[in-house]
Amino acid sequence: MPDASCSLPKPRIEKSKFGFDIHVYNPSGRRRVLSTKPLVGTRWLRALTQAACRVEVCQVEAIMKRETIKALIGDTCHAVIGQITERACEAHDASQRRSPSLTIPRQRWDDEMFACLSRAGGRSFCNYGVGYDNVDVAAATRHGVAAGNTPGVQSDTVAELTVGLTLAAARRFREAERTVLAPSFDGPLPSMLNGKQLRGGTLGLVGAGKIGAAYARMMARGMGMSVLYHGSRPNEELERQLRTTDAYLRSVGEPGIAVRRCEELAELLESADVVTLCCAYSPERRHLIDRAALARMKPDAVLVNIARGALVDEAALVERLQDFPDFRAGLDVFEHEPKLHPGLRTCLNAVILPHIGAASVWTRSAMAAGWLGIKDAEALLKEAADEEPETLRPPGMGLGATFISHNLGSIMSTKAGQRLETKVKSTLARSRKSDMEAATGVAEAEEEGSRASAFASRPRAGSMLNKDSLFAKVDRKKKRKR
């Protein structure tokens, strides 16, 4: 259990002019940090308050309008912790949610928003998630704002959910639940809800990054599925691992599996029993799975999307689900989040989830703690650069470690980078252990220690999206001073 001396004081509760509560931690802090949503765990709050920050956490579930966020930023705000959901359409009131019209989402954190934050003295924007299609990184750089995300800590968690979503769609969980809850249910029948068996089938993976590769390993090893993948470059490590799996399966008398990269998406769509989207979104990939792509898929295929909703033309998908009852879909994301295409409500051959891929206590707390919880990072940066932190990066960036992760050492001298990496790994491990103990309350210290070590060995817990351009500006200033 966490040390009592590290417990977080109760927040002061203030009422915003918009009607929701704001929990204020360390009200007398010198730097103001605004979080648009409550985060999991307390390590990040302790780190920021110990770094003399006033932390304001909005207690609201609805997606905020941009004018609301701008008003909350106000005249003074040094950093904002935002959400990937802050990318949707301008209005999100009840009347619009009932409207049948669907509009294309626009980028929420754009030039206007970063200009507002910069005018208030802000130099840090934290995007609580891996994807950052809601963030105009170039605009952040223009306004001197360090923009970051949280890769590296949620790959396995998202992959686990993707496996579950795949099974739920293939084995008709949505229909099955509805059947058993109906008053007329009188027991199973031989012809009832027969779904698609996955073992021995072919998985088509669109995007073989960390999440996609983790998912592919689970499906290959657990379901004996062969893997076709389509991506911008070969994933040689994934291929090596799956060839090892194939050799093991054959050695114990089980059918083997195959792995191969498809140059063309069309070949993957035509061959796969399950097509899963794990790729990053860009405007060029909007409606990557359109009516023509869906027509290439098998009539009884399963389409799974855990990446970004706009990769799929939902209107075309609804048509496919309606025309081919054996076609299945598993969706954790939607084209116009938080809106749901009306047709998906009635298509029982679609399993739909509310974008919860990373929603485990372990991962959510790791995202917050690993991202903001490195309390010694500012001093380490000063030591590594042999100068004041404010001259190394924009003022306000060192909010008790915002965006400082051990991959940052690569942009410093080798020796200093090694010192930073070693210290940050250790701090991440301590941070993860504290949050895990707080979350479970009954975890054994030994088990927590092993989990903390596993967390520390992961590639990174937080990443600055525009560090190269921001640090280039700093280097130019340093040269002019010389």
How would you explain this protein's 3D organization?
This protein has 482 residues and is of the alpha/beta class. It has two domains: 4-154 and 360-453 and 460-481, Rossmann fold (3-Layer(aba) Sandwich); 155-182 and 191-352, Rossmann fold. The protein is 41% helix and 13% strand. The protein has 19 helices and 15 strands. The strands form two sheets. It has an eight-stranded mixed β-sheet. A seven-stranded parallel β-sheet has the order 10-9-8-11-12-13-14, with helices on both faces. Strand 13 (328-331), helix 13 and strand 14 (350-352) form a beta-alpha-beta unit. Helix 8 (210-223) packs parallel to helix 9, helix 14 packs antiparallel against helix 17 and helix 17 (414-440) packs antiparallel against helix 18 (445-456). Residues 1-5, 88-106 and 373-461 have low confidence and may be disordered.
